[in-house]
Amino acid sequence: MNSAFVSVDWAGRPVRIEHRWIAPERTSAPLVVFLHEGLGSLAMWKDFPQRVCDSARVRGLVYSRPGYGRSTPRQAEQAWGLDFMHRQAHEVLPALFEALGIDAARDKPWLFGHSDGGSIALLYAARS
C-alpha cells in the first residue's frame, strides 16, 4: 500500500500527515474519506477502503491522524485534552482538505468513520 505525506500546521507546529488516494481518476465520483479508530492508522484499514471504493465506484482518501501510523508522532510532553476529537474534526480535517486541494463545500466528501473516526466524522458534519 503506497502512501504519501502532506504538511499542515496544527497545534502551533508543522505536522506531516500520511495519506493514500484510492481511484483519484474517478474525478466525477463522490469522495469517501476514511477516518480510523483510536488505535488505528492508514495501514490498519488494510484493503477495506480499496474494496469499498471499487464496489461503489467512488474515489477514496485514507489517512493517519497526527500521532498515529506514519504521521508526525505526538511529542512526548504533549498531552491531548478531552476535546481531542473536536480538534481533529474542526482543525486537522479541514487543514488536511485544504492541503490536498479538497473543497469540502463543492466536493461534499462522504465521511466513513470507525469508533473515534465515527465521532470525528459526526463532529465535522455537525459544523458543515
Compile the SSE list and pairings.
Elements: E1 4-10, E2 13-22, E3 31-35, H1 48-56, E4 59-63, H2 84-99, H3 104-107, E5 110-113, H4 116-127
Parallel strand pairs: 3-4, 3-5
Antiparallel strand pairs: 1-2, 2-4
Strand content: 15-25%
How would you characterize the largest beta sheet? 5 strands, mixed
Q: How many beta-strand elements?
A: 5
Helix content: 25-40%
What is the spatial order of strands in the main beta sheet?
1-2-4-3-5
List low-pLDDT spans.
Answer: none
Q: Count of helices?
A: 4
SS class: alpha/beta
Rg from C-alpha positions?
14 Å
Query: How is the quaternary structure best described?
Result: single chain
Distance between the termini: 31 Å
Instruction: Give the overall shape, derived from the CA principal axes.
Output: globular
* Average pLDDT level: 95
Order of helices and strands: EEEHEHHEH
